[in-house]
């Protein structure tokens, strides 16, 4: 929606759609992957990268949402090591999701 709406309209939409994001104590637990050789569970690493990417993008133009950056950092920090393993289940695709998240992080 951030790409489609003018910024002010996006803020209204975001506040209506996900009002909990405004809370400075907002947190969302990372998706825990208990077995990275499991082709289903490893998708949680992808969810973590996707969450981080989107949280960073929200905070990018809306300084009142800067408190989301540490939450995004938690998600990246948990899943980033998974892209360096030898396992095919996540190794062949997670890197692209990680790049989107890292580019949005401005790290």
Automatic annotation (TrEMBL):
One Pfam assignment: DUF2891
Highest taxon, organism lineage: Bacteria
Full protein name: DUF2891 family protein
Organism annotation: Jejuia pallidilutea
């Amino acid at each position: 929606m951030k790409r489609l709406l003018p910024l002010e309209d996006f803020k209204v939409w975001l506040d209506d759609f996900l009002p909990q994001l405004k809370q400075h104590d907002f947190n969302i637990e990372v998706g825990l992957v208990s077995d990275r050789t499991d082709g289903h569970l490893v998708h949680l690493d992808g969810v973590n990268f996707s969450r981080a990417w989107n949280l960073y993008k929200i905070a990018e133009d809306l300084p009142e949402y800067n408190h989301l950056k540490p939450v995004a950092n938690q998600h990246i920090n948990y899943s980033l090591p998974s892209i360096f393993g030898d396992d095919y289940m996540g190794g062949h695709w997670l890197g692209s999701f990680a790049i989107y998240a890292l580019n949005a992080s401005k790290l």
